């Protein structure tokens, strides 16, 4: 039996707007087609992300960029068919007794092509500067609220090393285990103990959702072109590994 067959409700945990579509858009679309109730938790607004050259360039480094990325995420979520969407730190994704807070994008630097590491400068309210326990408790609060049958997030390396991705893997895994909820990590290469999904049928839906993130990327044919010019194929196959 597939991992997905035993999951009538799934919570995806991501770090920034566009992560949900780039890495798991086809999986979300597949789940929605199956009638699964899909929810999305996003940790930050991607405030430190670069902006694609063009009409939105002037938004870089401004509060207006934050608002634009909030709108982009909502449009992408609607396109994918996500039922409910939440921000980490906002109730119900906030531990009881704590005032709402906003987690900021921690930034990153490229160590080498395809591998990111921590930024040299990080704001005090950045995700990675917050105690892991607080982040975990906020994720756990949403799990208690939604009672998903499966939580999906990054692998231990955050996909490509982004510190915010790594932090959300740690927090989501700990929160899921604390409440006995199955957790699956996203895998991008077939391997042992991995269920692999070829989901080419959903490429049209994912392409439309990617276009919603116009401040961060463009779509050129079957490729994503990031703000820095890096290209990668639109993901149409993805794996899951239960931990």
Could you write a compact summary of the structure shown?
The chain has 243 residues and is an alpha/beta fold.
List the SSEs and their pairings.
Blueprint: E1 9-14, H1 19-34, E2 37-42, H2 63-80, E3 84-87, E4 109-112, E5 115-117, H3 132-146, E6 150-153, H4 163-178, E7 183-187, E8 195-198, H5 203-211, E9 217-220, E10 223-226, E11 231-233, E12 237-242
Parallel strand pairs: 1-2, 1-6, 2-3, 6-7
Antiparallel strand pairs: 4-5, 7-12, 8-12, 9-10, 10-11
3D architecture notes:
The structure is a single chain. By secondary structure, the protein is an alpha/beta fold. The chain contains 5 helices and 12 strands. It has helices at residues 19-34, 63-80, 132-146, 163-178, 203-211, and strands at residues 9-14, 37-42, 84-87, 109-112, 115-117, 150-153, 183-187, 195-198, 217-220, 223-226, 231-233, 237-242. It has a 7-stranded mixed sheet, with helices on both faces. Strands 9-10-11 form a 3-stranded antiparallel sheet, covered by helices on one side. β9 (217-220) and β10 form a beta hairpin. α2 (63-80) packs antiparallel against α5 (203-211). The chain is globular and about 45 Å long. The mean pLDDT is 92.
């Amino acid at each position: 039996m597939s991992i997905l067959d035993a999951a009538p409700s799934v919570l995806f945990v991501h770090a920034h707007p566009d992560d949900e579509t780039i890495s798991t858009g086809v999986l979300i679309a597949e789940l929605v087609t199956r009638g699964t109730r899909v929810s999305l938790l996003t940790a930050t607004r991607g405030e430190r992300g670069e902006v694609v050259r063009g009409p939105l360039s002037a938004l870089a480094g401004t509060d207006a960029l934050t608002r634009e990325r909030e709108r982009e995420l909502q449009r992408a979520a609607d396109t994918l068919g996500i039922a409910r969407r939440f921000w980490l730190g906002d109730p119900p994704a906030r531990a009881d007794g704590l005032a709402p807070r906003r987690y900021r994008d921690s930034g990153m630097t490229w160590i080498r092509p395809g591998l990111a590491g921590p930024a040299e400068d990080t704001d005090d309210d950045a995700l990675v500067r917050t105690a892991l326990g607080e982040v975990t408790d906020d994720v756990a609060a949403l799990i208690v609220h939604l009672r998903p049958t499966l939580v999906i997030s990054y692998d231990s390396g955050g996909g490509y090393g982004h510190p915010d991705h790594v932090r959300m893997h740690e927090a989501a895994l700990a929160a899921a285990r604390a409440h006995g909820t199955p957790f699956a990590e996203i895998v991008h290469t077939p391997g042992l103990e991995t269920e692999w999904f070829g989901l080419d049928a959903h490429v049209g839906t994912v392409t439309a959702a990617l276009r919603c993130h116009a401040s961060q990327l463009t779509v050129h044919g079957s490729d994503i072109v990031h703000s820095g010019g890096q290209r990668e194929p639109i993901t149409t196959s993805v794996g899951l590994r239960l931990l």
